[in-house]
């Protein structure tokens, strides 16, 4: 049986910066409170226009689950790895807290969790995905910004979206081959 290649496709035009994704992620994954502790986030673009005709864009982000993950390459203990389905993981028992992976990640998608004394990051909610559920951020989004699925399945919604719409990845010049696709 062929492995899956999990990915998320994001339509940022739908994001209203309600932060439901960040709250759901923190609750689902026991992320400690505080601004420096996060597995996902929403960046705010500049306000455009003049009053009363104003606009603003919001860009959700998280671990890009790169196929050429720099965090994996620099981990001295093998705590960071990429599983057969493309999910970048951290084994907290192997993590020594050196934070090399945090420095290597061009997306700033990792944080040091003082409570578990290890680096932490998005796992696409693997514990939910392997039970047939969606990642918490995907499930909770009221405007359905994120679509999660298997790119190796040509009939999956993520495959159809990537085939249908022009899209971009973040920092393609880094050569990390990220698996978050932003519809243009």
Automatic annotation (TrEMBL):
Domain spans labelled 4Fe-4S ferredoxin-type: 6-36, 54-85, 86-115
InterPro entries: 4Fe4S_Fe-S-bd, 4Fe4S_Fe_S_CS, ET_IronSulfur_Cluster-Binding
Origin superkingdom: Bacteria
Keyword Iron assigned: yes
Keyword annotations of the record: 4Fe-4S, Iron, Iron-sulfur, Metal-binding
GO function terms (MF aspect): 4 iron, 4 sulfur cluster binding; metal ion binding
Keyword Metal-binding on entry: yes
Protein name per Swiss-Prot or TrEMBL: Fe-S-cluster-containing dehydrogenase component
Organism: Desulfuromonas soudanensis
Lineage per the UniProt record: Bacteria, Pseudomonadati, Thermodesulfobacteriota, Desulfuromonadia, Desulfuromonadales
